Amino acid sequence: MSEILQGAPFDEVKASGGSDYYKYGPTGTEMLIEVVPPGDSGEIKMIFLSSAFKGSTDKGVRMNDSIEVVKRKMSGDHLLTQGDHHLKYESGIEFGLDLSPRQVVTITITPKEASH
After folding, report:
1. Which of 43, 57, 95, 116 falls 20 to 30 Å from 31 in CA-CA distance?
2. Average pLDDT score over the chain
3. Would the CA dihedral through 26, 9, 5, 23 be positive or negative?
C-alpha cells in the first residue's frame, strides 16, 4: 500500500458532505481514502481497496485470497464478525468476499482512532 501512497493522488474529490476523498493507483480505482474533516487538518477515516488493488495488507492478504488463507494470515487478530460476504477483524480491517469461490474482492480499513 505504501508504494501507491508515495505519489500524489490520481484524483482528489472535495465532497460537500464533510469528507475529502482521494483516489490512488494507476487508474484511480485501486484505492480510495476518506479524510474527515475536509482540509489539511483532516484524518483518515477509511481506506477502501478495490479488486484492482495489486498489493497486499501488512499481514500479506491479497485480492483473491481464499477465506482459509485470510484466516491463517490474520491469526493473532481477533475475528469480530463473519458473514456470507465479509470477515471483520478487531484491528479495523474488513474483507469483502465473493460468495463463490469465497475469495477476497474488497478490503476496507478503518483506523482504530477513527472508529471511536
Report:
1. 116
2. 85
3. negative
